[in-house]
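Quick one: structure for this chain?
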Amino acid sequence: MNRRELLLQDAEHVWHPYSSMSGANPVFPVASARGVRLQLADGRELIDGMSSWWCAIHGYNHPVLNAAIESQLQNMAHVMFGGLTHEPAVTLAQRLVELTPAGLDTVFFADSGSVAVEVAMKMAIQYWAALGQPKQRFLSLRNGYHGDTFGAMSVCDPVTGMHGLFTGTLAKQLFAPAPEPVFGQPCSKAHLQAFRTLLETYRSEIAAVILEPIVQGAGGMRFYSADYLRKVRELCNEHDVLLIADEIATGFGRSGKLFACEWAGISPDILCLGKALTGGYLTLAATLTSKRVSDTISHHEPGAFMHGPTFMANPLACAAANASIGLLLSSPWQDHIRNIEQALERGLAPARELPAVAEVRVLGAIGVIELKHPVDMKIIQPAFVDAGVWVRPFGKLVYLMPAYVIQTQDLQQLCAATVDVVTRHS
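Got it. Here's what it folds into:
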């Protein structure tokens, strides 16, 4: 299929994420990808600043990940996980238990990040039901984002979480103000007063607090105080409420720690992982929890956790995840993240002087230019492509989350192009 025919058929039949079938926003056919570069069908080459929505941390077409997939394919591509098991899943579960914060000893595999959140919420509800306490509400944070399925949507910020249209059909959850102290700042009692009041008032109803540790992603790309997170953990303990940490975006090094919870030195009761888990090769997620939660659910009626995805623990995905984790841990990934952080800080700093820019902030391998007004995607997206980079803004946020393997020269070019496009089109 030639490029013209591909685009015609795409416009006729394919519905892209967060898009209209009206064809108002352009799409760009990709022919291949290698390292941190996307090769478009028209021959243009783009430096990827998104790592495919934050998951392709080792870049594209990596020989180690390719080999892991090819090797596993010779044995089996898939087998049901009900009543069966296999080595890639068991190895991956063991690795995740070893790597994640202490006390997370049970692993439930799922299909995607949103489903991992659904699983976490069901775990929390079923845990309390097993104890004879019908707690079925969740306390979340403003500016939070947890996914696009119904349970996940209900705990996203109803304003910034992109799901306001569905508010009337969603479970009614509780929302505390977004964390006020930014990353690196202490958190006072006053900062947590509203959160504490909600916990105290609705303690008998709240199954769990759910939040993104340190980095609030698609709800606002905000970096908040580790001290705030630490004190939330203390309040959950004090009020006997479970804590769910959604590390789908931050897991596997993105914030500068292997898991963002490490910035606060805390362990959640339930942890959600996804995105970078397989290095961007296949969709896979994991929800980890404590023996306290898994044993309580297992030893009370109905005697089983009531969830089971068809493609749970897909062997190809588990093999990719094992290879990706091995690749990450065998590399000086902390140095890579530190170098990216410094380069993003230098490269995006000129945007602070632009009248259209509200703030520039950087943490780990995340760089954000927050504008005062939303971008026009019909204009700014082609401008980024013309500048030789792939950057996908949303709302007022122009952000970079490059692969960890990006070289200094490419990162400098990515930052310079980003600032230039923002200067000309915002």
